[in-house]
Amino acid sequence: MATPRTRDHAGRVGWFTGHMNPPDVPPPDPTRSTEVEAGAPTPLPLTGERTGPDVPDENYWFRRHVAAYDHVAAAIHGTVLDAGCGEGYGLPILLAAGARGVIGAELDPTTAEHARRRYADDSVAEIDVIEADLAELPLVDTTLDAAVCLQVVEHLTEPDEAMAELVRVVHPGGLVAVSTPNRTTFTPAGSPRNPFHVREYDAVELAELLDRAGLVDVRVLGLHHGPRLAAALAPLGDDPVAALADPDRWDGPLRALVHGVRADDFTVVADDVASVGDSLDLVAWGRVLG
Hints:
With about 290 residues, the protein is α/β, with parallel strands linked by helices.
């Protein structure tokens, strides 16, 4: 059963009235598995727009995204918005790490319904999924403890409006985390190689996006291959992304490597210029002023 909600005069939804820490929802059970049970909805079709679990040839990209979720989940608490939650795999990650409630917001109706059925059924009252435009969230002002928006801003035509909405719904002092492919390494030259990317960012541009939203204490970190994966991918040369994006080019050993990638094969490095500049993905943090 979904957690009770209220609406303000504008019809916006409020989860867990007050400061969004539900008195009637116990802390998550750390022994509860976040794996998907048999009978769950079948995987969404892969179009290149989003990643997801249960597709072996997609495993590198999926685990790379999970690594970003693991990083941000360790630093947040309370009730959290996963803005642009996609397939929804990040929702149980955030919950298992200590969030007391997680709201997934997804624009695409089919994807939102998939995430709701797979991760927010009646047995998981602490997770909810809404269909929403990130530029106009149906949520009450200053009622969330944190918001994450991972691998999403590169898809947005109105990124500043979306960031302003994240700031609006998080209470003063709360955290906002954003991750995105590092344009410097993902698309070294020319237009974005992913046709679903509207705009890609380097570290300076991502920090400026958070600054314009009014966030303070902004930091940008870099996500990298860990030692094991870096060594295994070294034969692919200076641009392994090109090979990893095209399964038709894989030989047997590379396919086996992709299928065996783990989230801990990636690492997030502190925000010094060198580590951020050559990172795979950028992970930015900011705090809502107040």
